[in-house]
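The records we work with from here on pair a chain with its fold. These numbers are not coordinates but entries in a learned vocabulary of local backbone shapes. To see the layout at work, look at the sequence and tokens printed below:
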Amino acid sequence: MSAGTREFTVDTGVVRAEVVEGVVDARGVRYGARLDRTDRGSALGPPTIAQSPPTAFPQIGGMLDGILGQALGELPQHEDSFSLRIQAPADSAGLPVLLFVHGGGFTTGSGESRWYDAHDLVRSGRIVLVTVGYRIGALGHLGGSGDADASAQPLRDLEVAARWVRDNIAAFGGDPANITIAGDSAGAWYAHALSVLPETGGMFARTLLLSMPRLAPLSEDDHEARRAAFEGALAPEQFATAPVESILAAQRTTALNYLGAGFAFAPAAGPRMPEWLGEPKVSATRLHTSALLVVTTAEESAAFLRTQPAESFSREKLEDFVARSFSAPEAVLGYTAEWESGYEQMVLATTLWQFRSVAYDLARSATVPTRLMRLDVRSSLERALSPHCFTLPFVFGDRHAWRGAPMMEGVDRDTFERVRAAFRDAIVPFVRDGSGTAPVWRPESPRLLAVEEDGARVVAPGDLTVTAVTEGSAGRTGRKR
């Protein structure tokens, strides 16, 4: 074994990791394997090997490539990418663990991506970082029986991965009793589910949610309609035997048919996915972790609306959306009127409904100490503002890992370092013991941590009084994340 590698013994054998500047980086660590290799929707059993080259689950380009770049395309793809990436200080022992679930609209993403290079974070923060992959797209939500319950397979993958981490992370210097479950976007939705569903009670110490969307599980009818559309696009080939290329082509066709009408592939309500997962006021009362940190950006929805023509943002469309989505539509329209263009007003209204109101609902209803953060820094990318996913480079902290990401163009080194430090001061202590610079939410005097170009400050949220949403609005298929 060379000076630049180390070996770690896990349940299934030996894992080899690179050691770079005092950080262990183990990639392709296997957490499970399909019990039935002929069934694309098979449940997972123990891994049959300890490690393999890092890969991503099969996917096509995502709708946010225009702000994130093409890093996901650098990874080979494979249907059995049930793997983890583990980064830890080389001298770690008993350190807190951050288990992170990637986002990607339930159809893209990988825990093996260079986006999650975080050597400085784990070295200076003295934490162990684990990033995880799970089944996505049609292969994740329509396998096995293909019914609504089958759409919960990605959640089941994550449960298996979390148990592997609990049972093996001590070998890498992590504390299995001090795991923070975290995620971004769709990954935050799953991290939230893992923090409230009884099957995973006692597995996690704390919860960190980045840009969690307001989203109810699909109804059985909506799931069946999507499955029928996919099967029609795939015909005459069959799901069980079609090559991956055909699966992805049919997935693309189905997604285009649902463009503007919600996710084409997403979890559906069933035995493992209760409908109340889409109601943060309800789910927050069921948290079985000891603390919660929720992070949003100031203009999340710009990531999804920026490419639409200006004429798409008429006053009529804004008023219709606000009337359907908020309990006090006139107050929301008054709040959005502070912005000049129809585009900016729609970005603000949809951000309030889809993201910021979720953070406030969780904070007001949670029975554990809850902290909120908001990123107010703007990208120089045209019309991007402070978009969805803009938190990620600052959270993981490696500017070079985000080379080629259009949203990062124009972010100078000094600004990046200040914003990165603000996130680190809030997140690392939270992962360690539930503390940090973001204030604990107090109903009588609510405050959050606003991160700006010159640092962070505690502020009173100016939009809190206008974010009450219409009951049941999360059940709408909504726009895509």
Q: What stands out?
A: Residues 342-365 form the longest helix (24 residues). The radius of gyration is 21 Å.
